[in-house]
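Morning F.,

Quick status update on the modeling queue. The single chain you submitted on Monday has been processed. Sequence for confirmation:
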Amino acid sequence: MRRRYATADVFTSKPLGGNPVAVVLDAAGLTTAQMQALAAEFNYVETTFVLPPASPKHTAHVRIFTPDREVPFAGHPNIGTAFLLARERAEADGSRPEQFVFEEAAGLVEVDLLYQDGVVVGADLCAPQSLTRRAEVEAVQAAACLSLTADDVLITRHKPQIVSVGLPFLAVELASREALRRARPNRQAYDDLFPLDDARAVYAYTRTPGDVATDGFDLNARMFTWRLVEDPATGSATAAVAGLVSVLDGKEGRFRALQGEDMGRPSTLLARTVFDGEAIKARIGGQCASMFSGTFEI
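Structure tokens below.
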């Protein structure tokens, strides 16, 4: 059976920037093993598979795979999938959907489409889970994962900690932008620490200004996966850290985050947090650029 796919660069308005995602648009009938093999074949940080929803009230059932495992939720794959589905509908019948609801392992993901001059340019989603704060890690352990020293880790506001709004990460605040630039993942340190509270990746960030290139951004970040691959833009981790910062500040906030600059794929992520009773919910959004499309048989 011939199946269709498309790709988009997410959290950028220009092609060849941001974080690429591959989307299999008609995945019904594929087995989990086939989806995993296809994700390894695309070899992007994540690949999504669009399936019929369990409920007619929802847009689709979306499954998300890295090259080596399925994940319950992720930010940039949802943004890119919504963007590409909206483009497909516009080309098919001229429709202009305002919101999609995706069924995912972490829960329902509501995604609002972003338009400029009547053309879809991106999306903004509400994370499926409220912020959770899990295990804390000593600065020396977190630093080792990043090939840094404990002095490079800032612990005045929080110790390195596992945080999640649907997919957990180790959030590490660094003392300077220069330390963030020097960060490199270390295999032995990762193996010694992970998995921890379901987390397998490190999201390092700084709120310290200084570089002209970072002016106008509230957060500067890098994320390294279990496979020691750097992610150009990590929506789920950015949303979780925005929630963490909001808890520490004691107020809701809006955050403009820069990621991917040090690997040549600058990405702009827009996060927003809202207190919902005693819980905090986070949103993440940004623009997208359409890239490739095609078909395959399997």
